[in-house]
Structures are given as structure tokens and as C-alpha cells.
Model the fold of this input.
Amino acid sequence: MKIIINNALTTSHLLGGNGHDLVSISLAIEKGKIVQISECPLPAPQGTSTEKPSEKVIDATGLFLSPGLLDPQVHFREPGMEYKEDIASGSRAAVKGGFTSVVSMPNTTPTADNEDTIAFMVEKASTTGLCKVYPTGALSKGLEGKEITDFETLQAAGAVAITDDGKGVQNNSLFKQALINAKALGIPVLDHSEDERLSNGGAIHEGDVSRKHNVKGIKASSESVHVKRGCDYSAETGGHYHVLHVSTADSIEAIRQAKAKGANVTVEVSPHHLLLCDEDILVKADGTLDANWKMNPPLRSKHDMLACREALTEGIIDAIATDHAPHEKALPIEKAPFGIIGLETAFALIYTHFVKTGKLNLNTAIDLMSKQAGAIFNIKCGRIKEGANADLALFDLNTPFTVTPSFFASKSQNSPFINKTLYGETYYTLVNGEIKYARP
Ligand SMILES: [Zn+2]
Done:
């Protein structure tokens, strides 16, 4: 089917040129590709009588056209924990947020440490997924940090990266070997940087808030110790070391230094670590802390949060990642699982708090959520060009909307951003030229 998008606003930068000013464009999409880009509106295609005109022509007047977004880190829970999320519901959340591609983590049941599980995910994504799902393979068997997996087999089955995300790799020589093995295959090792001797079973960041509420804390150094290790090993081996969900000032300093020396290191940050700190954790009426503010790495100190913001505006950060992790949270904070959903709100949070306030250029924000995020995995995306895949999102940048529990497409609503008013609501998401989300 042919689809026309008329009168959308975008920038010449996103069209592959230079320039930040908004320009009005119209597009024709056919067989999954962008076949024509025009300055003038295009005529409605001739279709069969069963197709409604509204399904063929999108009037995008006043809407901003972005390349489809790519999230480098999501947890879709399938196979094994489909009651929390599955590929169908997770990808529904993705397209609701303007994401057309996601990289999924291997902490499923069974673990994605074997070709069959990865092949299952690829197959399931092609049948029930609304967006493109790129699986990762586990670094160690069962994420146990003992026995290294066969990266070549995992890559052949479809894995775009290697990671034990969900857990830090405690064994130094195993981690170094992973960088060496992955380098030979041209894929990155993604690190959930956590030294368990320092995180020590804590529930929130160790600091004034954990002490005040008598909750066991996670030391900031639990992350930075592993980030420094990864940067050193990357410099030594030449392997591509990618830091997942960075959250502390010391980690950022280590990455800054490694990048200055030209090390093969990349880093992502999550909207919640940019926008919230431990002081923001909601205190419930009974005086206890709300578990929707519990994630791993935890919301850190204000100093750490400000360091993440500085790294973002300074250009140290390569990508924005949600770490979308659906969970039921009706438990005391010590007992509740770690995790936050994020696909539906990520773009709007970044747009509202960084672009609209003038801290970050719109093009840079989109690049961090598409082209640059894809580059970590050698996935080409992030430009609106004739001949390119029609992976696109249309956002309303001007009308405020409020996040409610029913706003989420995920199976869970574990978000600390409920009740927040944001800008940048998704109106349409197209994956391979098909409309996968249309705002009701
Ligand atoms: Zn993680």
C-alpha cells in the first residue's frame, strides 16, 4: 500500500543535510520505503475501494516528522515472564513512544545464552512485534558470570551485542575475554556496571536519603569501579565497551577520560537518571518510599544527576536508553523488584526538559535517540531519505499532555512520571512503511 504524509515539519539535518530550521515536507511511502520527498503536498494515491482515504494520506500539518527512534536497552520479558510484558505489549509501548527499533536484553527465562532462545525472539518479533526487535546474547551461561557463551553462534542467530544486563559481570578475566571475543565479531559488549561487593544488596542509592529512611544503600562506586575496569580493558584490547544506563559523576569522568584518549567506549543515559535524583523519591503517606522510584542503577545524588545532564549537553553521551523494565510494584521498597518503564515517555521527557528549555538542540536529541544509538550496533537509521526504510514518527511538539496510568501501552505502569505534563506526544509511528501507532 502507498501512504502519503503531507505537510510535516522536519529539519534539513534529519533529511541528511545541514541546518536546524524547520522545513515543511511531504512524503510518499511505498513497499516499506520512502520513495519521494517533496516540498509540496502530494496527491492521494489511487487505491482499492476497501481502503479508507484516511489510511492512505496523513495530514501532518503542525506535526514534527522524525526518523523512527531506536532504544538501545529494553526488557520485553518474553520468553518466560510474559505476565510482566511480552514482545507484543512491549513493542506496543515502543511505537506509542515513536520507537521503531529496540535492542532487547537477554535476562529472559530461559536466558538468551543460546541460539534457540534468540531465534525464538527473532521469530516472535516478526510475527507479534509492532517494531523491530534486535536481541542481545548473554555474555555468560545463565547470566551466572562463570562460563562464557559462544558469541559467534549467538550473533549468527541474530544477536547484535553481548551483555549480562540485569547483572554486573563480577569476574574480571571473563569480562576481558568477552571484549576480545566480541571484537573479533565486530560487536559491542554492553555492561551493566555493578560491583556486587559495593552494591551489597541495597535498594536505593547510598546517601542522606537512604540513611534518613533506614533503607540499605547502593554505593555510587559500585558502578564507577566497573566502568573504570571496562574503560581500561577496552583500551588494552580494542574491544567496543558500551556502558549501559550510566548514573554517576565518577563513571562519567572515567568515560570522559577514556574517550579523550580515543578508546572504543560508548555510553548511554536514561531519562530518569537525567531528571530525577534520590531526593525526588516519593515518600508515601505512611512515611515509606514509593517503589516506582526504585531501579538499578538507582536514582543517584543530585550531584550525580547534574553530572549526567552536563555529560548530555557536553556531547559525552552517545545515546538515550529507557531500560524499559515492566514490574508490579505493590511491595515495600526493600522487597520490590528494580525497574522502570520508559518507552512511552522517553521522547517527551527529553523534548520537554532539554529541547524546549534550550539546553539541547532538537537534532542532537533525535540523533541520540536514533542515528547515534543505532551506530553502537551498526544499525543504520536516523535519516529521512528517499530509498530509506520508512521508519518514521510524527510528534506534536506544541500541545501539552498529561501522563496518566492509562496512557501506558505496557502491561505495567511502574513510572515515576505519572501525572507529569509533557510536550512531544506521538501522533503516528510507521515501521517499514506501515502505520503501527495512530493516536486515537
Ligand atoms: Zn541494567
